Amino acid sequence: MLSRTPKIRRLGPADIDTMRDLNALYADAFEDHETYRRDRPGDDWLARQLGKDAIILLVAEADGRVVGGLTAYDLPKLEQARSEIYLYDLAVDEAHRRQGIATALIAELQHIAADTGAWAVFVQADHADPPAIALYTKLGVREEVLHFDLPPRPRG
Predict the structure, then answer these.
(1) Which one of 31, 37, 60, 119 is most buried, counting C-beta atoms within 10 A?
(2) Could you report the per-residue pLDDT of 25-61, keeping only the tens digit for each?
(3) How many CB atoms lie within 10 A of CB 74?
């Protein structure tokens, strides 16, 4: 149980250790240690990414540790002078779920979207993740879409 309400904050270039803590949280929450812990990027690379306005990393911290977080990307559009924000990853430590942390993180992302003039925030959810579907349904409009992963292909 948390001793105080988590503080939500955006990470910047000096938050390399906190970013590593967020990746560890993702690894546990998604049961994907291969993706989120293997071949960790170096400090210089992480600092550069954390300094980009188009990469939005938010954490919920309580008692000196990361208990939730999200990763989002600001995607400029070309058909109109606007952008959309893609919420890519969202996780809350299992012991701290159902306390409003995910909703608070999304609310902060929505504030950032408004501050930057983004047109919308969008997110995908897997059919096998009913809690995520319930959360996103509560907060927004559901669309049925198909998602495809297309592999990179070298020239030649």
Answers:
(1) 60
(2) 999 998 888 888 766 889 999 999 999 999 999 999 9
(3) 19
Residue 93: count of CB within 10 angstroms of its CB? 18
Residue type, 133: I
Q: Percent of the chain scored above 70 by pLDDT?
A: 88
For CA atoms 21, 62, 90, 9, the dihedral sign is: negative
> pTM of the entire structure?
0.85
Residue pair 33/27 in contact by the 8 Å Cβ criterion: yes
DSSP per-residue codes, the chain: --SSPPEEEE--TT-HHHHHHHHHHHHHHTT-HHHHHTTPPPHHHHHHHHT-TTEEEEEEEETTEEEEEEEEEEEE-SSSS-EEEEEEEEEE-GGGTTSSHHHHHHHHHHHHHHHHT-SEEEE---TT-HHHHHHHHHHS----------------
Q: What is the pLDDT of residue 2?
A: 44
